[in-house]
Amino acid sequence: QVQLVESGGGLVQAGGSLRLSCAASGSTFSINFMMWYRRAPGKQRELVAYISNGGSTNYVNSVEGRFTISRDNAKNTLYLQMNNLKPEDTAVYYCAASRASPYSPNDWGQGTQVTVSS
Q1: What is the pLDDT of residues 6-24, one digit of tens each?
Q2: Cα 18 from chain centroid?
Q3: Which three-class secondary structure string do you get for the chain?
Q4: What pLDDT does 109 receive?
């Protein structure tokens, strides 16, 4: 099992930036994908971005060009750099890890709130 702890959320004005971090511990050798999901008020949870062990990345269209996912394997830490934030980015952001597919997480963090004011 993998333990995930997010940090870095907060309140920011539209156009601003935030960087989320996710520290992983436990059986990190089993991770093949790491992901950022989000759940906005009244909406279903959405896969925002993922990164594979090989470094391949993928983003949902709405954040392409504004968000960057990265990982520091030496520190077992996942990041999400969020630039040019919009009010519609307001959500609870969750770090997740998977052994098989970014669409089937095995482990979740507790979530961190991101609020973007207009």
Answers
A1: 999 999 999 999 999 999 9
A2: 12
A3: CEEEEEECCEEEECCCCEEEEEEEEECHHHCCEEEEEEECCCCCCEEEEEEECCCCEEECHHHCCCEEEEEECCCCEEEEEECCCCHHHCEEEEEEEECCCCCCCCEECCCEEEEEEC
A4: 97
